[in-house]
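Bench log. Compound arrived from synthesis this morning; before running ITC I wanted a structural hypothesis for how flavin mononucleotide sits in the protein. Inputs:
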Amino acid sequence: MSYLLHIDSSSLGSGSVSRQVADSFRAEWQGPVVHRDLAASPVPHLTAAGVSARITAPARHTPEQAKAAAVQDELIDEFLGAGAYLFTVPMYNYSMPSVFKAWLDQVMVAGRTLDFVNGSQAAGRPAVVISARGGGYGPGAPHHGLDYVVPALETILGHAHTLGLDVTTVTPELTLAPHNPAMAPLIPLYEASLADAHEQARQLAVRIGGRIAA
Ligand SMILES: Cc1cc2nc3c(=O)[nH]c(=O)nc-3n(C[C@H](O)[C@H](O)[C@H](O)COP(=O)(O)O)c2cc1C
Protein backbone atom coordinates (compact mmCIF):
# COMPACT_ATOMS: atom_id res chain seq x y z
CA MET A 1 0.00 0.00 0.00
CA SER A 2 1.35 3.42 -0.85
CA TYR A 3 1.92 5.90 1.94
CA LEU A 4 1.64 9.58 2.78
CA LEU A 5 5.05 11.24 2.49
CA HIS A 6 5.10 13.95 5.18
CA ILE A 7 8.00 16.37 4.90
CA ASP A 8 8.66 19.15 7.43
CA SER A 9 10.98 22.10 6.92
CA SER A 10 10.34 24.66 9.69
CA SER A 11 13.31 25.22 11.99
CA LEU A 12 10.99 25.75 14.96
CA GLY A 13 10.13 22.14 15.81
CA SER A 14 6.95 21.79 17.87
CA GLY A 15 6.61 25.61 18.01
CA SER A 16 6.01 25.71 14.27
CA VAL A 17 2.51 26.75 13.23
CA SER A 18 2.90 24.85 9.95
CA ARG A 19 3.75 21.68 11.87
CA GLN A 20 0.84 22.21 14.27
CA VAL A 21 -1.58 22.50 11.34
CA ALA A 22 0.01 19.39 9.84
CA ASP A 23 -0.74 17.65 13.15
CA SER A 24 -4.44 18.33 12.50
CA PHE A 25 -4.08 16.70 9.08
CA ARG A 26 -2.26 13.72 10.58
CA ALA A 27 -4.89 13.32 13.32
CA GLU A 28 -7.46 12.52 10.62
CA TRP A 29 -5.14 10.53 8.33
CA GLN A 30 -5.74 6.79 8.56
CA GLY A 31 -3.08 5.23 6.32
CA PRO A 32 0.66 4.61 6.60
CA VAL A 33 3.03 7.58 6.76
CA VAL A 34 6.70 8.12 5.99
CA HIS A 35 7.95 11.23 7.79
CA ARG A 36 11.08 13.22 6.96
CA ASP A 37 12.12 16.23 9.06
CA LEU A 38 14.44 18.35 6.94
CA ALA A 39 15.24 20.71 9.82
CA ALA A 40 16.40 17.88 12.07
CA SER A 41 18.12 15.99 9.24
CA PRO A 42 18.87 18.30 6.29
CA VAL A 43 19.67 16.71 2.97
CA PRO A 44 22.90 17.82 1.30
CA HIS A 45 22.90 20.62 -1.24
CA LEU A 46 23.15 19.50 -4.84
CA THR A 47 26.80 19.42 -5.96
CA ALA A 48 28.57 19.22 -9.33
CA ALA A 49 29.03 15.49 -8.68
CA GLY A 50 25.28 15.16 -8.14
CA VAL A 51 24.39 16.97 -11.36
CA SER A 52 26.97 15.16 -13.51
CA ALA A 53 26.00 11.76 -12.03
CA ARG A 54 22.58 12.20 -13.65
CA ILE A 55 24.08 12.12 -17.14
CA THR A 56 26.78 9.53 -16.48
CA ALA A 57 26.22 5.77 -16.58
CA PRO A 58 26.42 4.34 -13.03
CA ALA A 59 29.26 2.02 -14.06
CA ARG A 60 31.34 5.10 -14.90
CA HIS A 61 30.57 7.06 -11.72
CA THR A 62 33.48 8.46 -9.74
CA PRO A 63 33.27 7.78 -5.98
CA GLU A 64 31.92 11.34 -5.51
CA GLN A 65 29.25 10.81 -8.18
CA ALA A 66 28.26 7.43 -6.70
CA LYS A 67 27.87 9.00 -3.26
CA ALA A 68 25.82 11.90 -4.63
CA ALA A 69 23.68 9.57 -6.75
CA ALA A 70 22.92 7.43 -3.69
CA VAL A 71 21.53 10.49 -1.89
CA GLN A 72 19.29 11.30 -4.85
CA ASP A 73 18.19 7.69 -5.30
CA GLU A 74 17.06 7.36 -1.68
CA LEU A 75 15.04 10.60 -1.81
CA ILE A 76 13.56 9.87 -5.24
CA ASP A 77 12.54 6.31 -4.30
CA GLU A 78 10.89 7.69 -1.17
CA PHE A 79 9.11 10.35 -3.23
CA LEU A 80 7.90 8.00 -5.96
CA GLY A 81 6.71 5.37 -3.47
CA ALA A 82 4.18 7.76 -1.97
CA GLY A 83 0.54 8.04 -2.99
CA ALA A 84 0.02 11.45 -1.38
CA TYR A 85 2.14 14.25 0.06
CA LEU A 86 2.03 16.60 3.05
CA PHE A 87 4.61 19.38 2.95
CA THR A 88 5.10 22.02 5.67
CA VAL A 89 6.94 24.93 4.08
CA PRO A 90 6.78 28.18 6.08
CA MET A 91 7.67 31.55 4.62
CA TYR A 92 11.30 32.53 5.23
CA ASN A 93 12.39 35.79 3.65
CA TYR A 94 9.41 35.77 1.29
CA SER A 95 10.53 32.39 0.01
CA MET A 96 10.88 28.79 1.22
CA PRO A 97 13.29 27.44 3.87
CA SER A 98 16.58 26.50 2.22
CA VAL A 99 16.32 22.94 3.56
CA PHE A 100 13.17 22.42 1.50
CA LYS A 101 14.78 23.90 -1.63
CA ALA A 102 17.75 21.57 -1.13
CA TRP A 103 15.35 18.60 -0.99
CA LEU A 104 13.59 19.76 -4.17
CA ASP A 105 16.92 20.12 -5.99
CA GLN A 106 17.79 16.51 -5.10
CA VAL A 107 14.39 15.10 -6.12
CA MET A 108 13.57 16.98 -9.33
CA VAL A 109 15.46 14.84 -11.82
CA ALA A 110 14.69 14.47 -15.53
CA GLY A 111 14.07 10.86 -16.45
CA ARG A 112 13.27 9.96 -12.83
CA THR A 113 10.64 12.25 -11.32
CA LEU A 114 10.34 14.51 -14.36
CA ASP A 115 9.31 13.51 -17.86
CA PHE A 116 8.95 16.45 -20.22
CA VAL A 117 7.24 14.35 -22.91
CA ASN A 118 4.81 12.07 -21.06
CA GLY A 119 4.50 13.91 -17.76
CA SER A 120 5.74 12.81 -14.35
CA GLN A 121 4.76 9.38 -13.06
CA ALA A 122 3.67 11.23 -9.91
CA ALA A 123 1.23 13.43 -11.87
CA GLY A 124 -2.21 13.71 -10.35
CA ARG A 125 -1.21 12.56 -6.87
CA PRO A 126 -2.64 14.81 -4.14
CA ALA A 127 -0.29 17.13 -2.27
CA VAL A 128 -1.04 19.50 0.59
CA VAL A 129 1.32 22.42 1.25
CA ILE A 130 1.00 24.09 4.65
CA SER A 131 2.81 27.42 4.67
CA ALA A 132 2.59 29.60 7.80
CA ARG A 133 3.71 33.18 7.45
CA GLY A 134 4.26 35.99 9.93
CA GLY A 135 2.50 38.66 7.87
CA GLY A 136 -0.56 38.83 5.67
CA TYR A 137 -0.38 38.33 1.90
CA GLY A 138 -4.02 38.15 0.84
CA PRO A 139 -5.80 40.65 -1.43
CA GLY A 140 -5.76 44.12 0.12
CA ALA A 141 -2.82 43.41 2.45
CA PRO A 142 0.21 45.73 2.05
CA HIS A 143 2.36 42.70 1.18
CA HIS A 144 -0.10 41.24 -1.31
CA GLY A 145 1.87 39.90 -4.29
CA LEU A 146 5.06 39.35 -2.27
CA ASP A 147 4.44 35.66 -1.47
CA TYR A 148 7.18 33.78 -3.30
CA VAL A 149 6.51 30.48 -1.52
CA VAL A 150 3.08 29.34 -2.65
CA PRO A 151 3.32 30.49 -6.30
CA ALA A 152 6.76 28.89 -6.62
CA LEU A 153 5.59 25.61 -5.09
CA GLU A 154 2.45 25.56 -7.23
CA THR A 155 4.78 25.66 -10.24
CA ILE A 156 7.50 23.32 -8.98
CA LEU A 157 5.15 20.72 -7.54
CA GLY A 158 2.02 21.25 -9.57
CA HIS A 159 2.75 22.34 -13.13
CA ALA A 160 2.15 19.73 -15.84
CA HIS A 161 5.76 20.18 -17.03
CA THR A 162 7.15 19.48 -13.56
CA LEU A 163 5.78 16.99 -11.01
CA GLY A 164 2.15 17.61 -11.93
CA LEU A 165 0.91 16.97 -8.40
CA ASP A 166 -2.64 17.98 -7.48
CA VAL A 167 -1.60 20.74 -5.05
CA THR A 168 -3.77 22.34 -2.36
CA THR A 169 -2.29 25.08 -0.19
CA VAL A 170 -3.16 26.04 3.39
CA THR A 171 -1.72 29.35 4.58
CA PRO A 172 -2.13 30.32 8.24
CA GLU A 173 -1.25 34.02 8.19
CA LEU A 174 -0.23 36.77 10.61
CA THR A 175 1.46 34.28 12.97
CA LEU A 176 3.68 37.06 14.32
CA ALA A 177 0.66 39.03 15.55
CA PRO A 178 0.70 37.55 19.09
CA HIS A 179 4.46 38.23 19.36
CA ASN A 180 4.76 41.71 17.80
CA PRO A 181 3.00 44.53 19.73
CA ALA A 182 2.66 46.55 16.52
CA MET A 183 0.52 43.73 15.10
CA ALA A 184 -1.75 43.37 18.16
CA PRO A 185 -4.85 44.70 16.31
CA LEU A 186 -4.40 41.83 13.84
CA ILE A 187 -4.66 39.09 16.48
CA PRO A 188 -8.35 38.34 15.72
CA LEU A 189 -7.50 37.93 12.02
CA TYR A 190 -4.59 35.65 12.95
CA GLU A 191 -6.82 33.55 15.18
CA ALA A 192 -9.44 33.21 12.43
CA SER A 193 -6.78 32.28 9.86
CA LEU A 194 -5.32 29.66 12.20
CA ALA A 195 -8.69 28.10 13.01
CA ASP A 196 -9.52 28.01 9.31
CA ALA A 197 -6.16 26.37 8.51
CA HIS A 198 -6.69 23.60 11.08
CA GLU A 199 -10.18 22.95 9.73
CA GLN A 200 -8.96 22.91 6.12
CA ALA A 201 -6.20 20.46 7.09
CA ARG A 202 -8.64 18.10 8.80
CA GLN A 203 -11.02 18.18 5.83
CA LEU A 204 -8.22 17.62 3.33
CA ALA A 205 -6.98 14.57 5.24
CA VAL A 206 -10.45 13.01 5.15
CA ARG A 207 -11.02 13.86 1.49
CA ILE A 208 -7.59 12.74 0.28
CA GLY A 209 -7.62 9.64 2.47
CA GLY A 210 -10.94 8.64 0.93
CA ARG A 211 -9.61 9.27 -2.56
CA ILE A 212 -6.48 7.15 -1.98
CA ALA A 213 -8.48 4.30 -0.50
CA ALA A 214 -11.04 4.28 -3.36
C1 LIG B 1 14.27 33.11 8.99
C2 LIG B 1 12.87 33.64 9.00
C3 LIG B 1 12.45 34.46 7.97
C4 LIG B 1 11.14 34.94 7.96
N1 LIG B 1 10.73 35.70 6.92
C5 LIG B 1 9.43 36.11 6.87
C6 LIG B 1 8.97 36.85 5.75
O1 LIG B 1 9.68 37.14 4.80
N2 LIG B 1 7.67 37.23 5.74
C7 LIG B 1 6.80 36.90 6.76
O2 LIG B 1 5.63 37.24 6.67
N3 LIG B 1 7.22 36.19 7.83
C8 LIG B 1 8.52 35.80 7.90
N4 LIG B 1 8.95 35.06 8.96
C9 LIG B 1 7.98 34.67 10.00
C10 LIG B 1 7.50 33.27 9.73
O3 LIG B 1 6.94 33.14 8.44
C11 LIG B 1 6.47 32.87 10.78
O4 LIG B 1 7.08 32.87 12.05
C12 LIG B 1 5.85 31.53 10.47
O5 LIG B 1 4.92 31.22 11.50
C13 LIG B 1 6.93 30.47 10.37
O6 LIG B 1 6.33 29.20 10.13
P1 LIG B 1 6.33 28.10 11.26
O7 LIG B 1 5.55 28.68 12.42
O8 LIG B 1 5.68 26.94 10.65
O9 LIG B 1 7.75 27.84 11.64
C14 LIG B 1 10.25 34.60 9.01
C15 LIG B 1 10.71 33.76 10.05
C16 LIG B 1 12.00 33.30 10.05
C17 LIG B 1 12.46 32.39 11.18
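What the model suggests: The two ends are 12 Å apart (CA to CA). Residues 187-213 form the longest helix (27 residues).
ITC booked for Thursday regardless.
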